[in-house]
Automatic annotation (TrEMBL):
<dbReference type="InterPro" id="IPR036390">
    <property type="entry name" value="WH_DNA-bd_sf"/>
</dbReference>
<keyword id="KW-0159">Chromosome partition</keyword>
<dbReference type="GO" id="GO:0051301">
    <property type="term" value="P:cell division"/>
</dbReference>
<keyword id="KW-0132">Cell division</keyword>
<dbReference type="InterPro" id="IPR036388">
    <property type="entry name" value="WH-like_DNA-bd_sf"/>
</dbReference>
<dbReference type="InterPro" id="IPR005234">
    <property type="entry name" value="ScpB_csome_segregation"/>
</dbReference>
<keyword id="KW-0963">Cytoplasm</keyword>
<dbReference type="Pfam" id="PF04079">
    <property type="entry name" value="SMC_ScpB"/>
</dbReference>
<dbReference type="GO" id="GO:0051304">
    <property type="term" value="P:chromosome separation"/>
</dbReference>
<protein>
    <submittedName>
        <fullName>SMC-Scp complex subunit ScpB</fullName>
    </submittedName>
</protein>
<keyword id="KW-0131">Cell cycle</keyword>
């Protein structure tokens, strides 16, 4: 075996990354951690979680402060660092949306725009998950089709949840991390307050819990 082959055997383990960087003065250590965190987030195709970022920084590194410093440096840039789907991700600022659409057209839009019916069903799933298709149909006063559910599943906005205790044990539906990411949410707790939707006339908690039609939805869908 040649010397080069001996240096690059398939079973060789990569050298351990120095995360503590004790040999650096505090300011340079902090800058290195910032660079590592931003590089990992930049290279990822989906939001990066705290546990992943913790692999490249020291044990005493405050990731929140690192993120804050990165955000401050990006203040004048056309993209920003946002908290979505339980992690962090680089995203273009909304102010540049028209610019990007002009440059790439519809090809630059990854997700198909939802119809009104699809968006309303998705909203109900988000607020009342886990929920069955039958329960959704009773809320709307007409059947929510398998095709509509299929569209939401196809875009990975919803997934199957636990079986319902109802007769026949039908599947329930829940939202996904893709849902959080697409709508810029870190957790479901960031959904608009239900009271705000009631004030806007979009939903009625009383009617929903009674199995009736959500306020304002029948007219919108009719």
């Amino acid at each position: 075996m040649s010397e080069a082959s001996a240096r690059h055997k398939p079973n060789d383990q990569p050298a351990l990354l120095d995360t503590e960087l004790d040999h650096l003065p505090p300011e340079l250590r902090w800058r290195e951690w910032m660079g590592r965190v931003e590089a990992v987030i930049f290279a990822a195709s989906e939001p990066v979680t705290r546990s992943v970022l913790a692999r490249v920084v020291g044990r005493n590194c405050n990731l929140e402060l690192i993120i804050d410093d990165i955000r401050a440096e990006l203040a004048g840039r056309p993209y920003e660092l946002v908290a979505v789907a339980g992690g962090w991700q680089h995203r273009t600022k909304k102010a540049f949306g028209d610019v990007i659409r002009s440059a790439f057209g519809s090809a630059g839009q990854e997700a198909k725009e939802l119809s009104q019916a699809e968006a309303l069903v998705l909203m109900c799933i988000a607020y009342f998950q886990p929920i069955t298709r039958g329960e959704l149909s009773s809320f709307f006063g007409k059947e929510v089709s398998r095709d509509l559910i299929g569209v939401l599943r196809g875009q990975e906005l919803i997934a199957s949840g636990p079986r319902s205790p109802q007769p026949g044990a039908p599947y329930t539906y829940v939202t996904t991390k893709t849902f959080l990411s697409q709508f810029g949410l870190d957790t479901l707790r960031q959904l608009p307050d239900f009271e705000a939707l009631e004030d806007a006339g979009l939903l009625s908690k009383e009617k929903l819990l009674a199995g009736g039609i959500p306020a304002g939805l029948a007219n919108r869908e009719g």
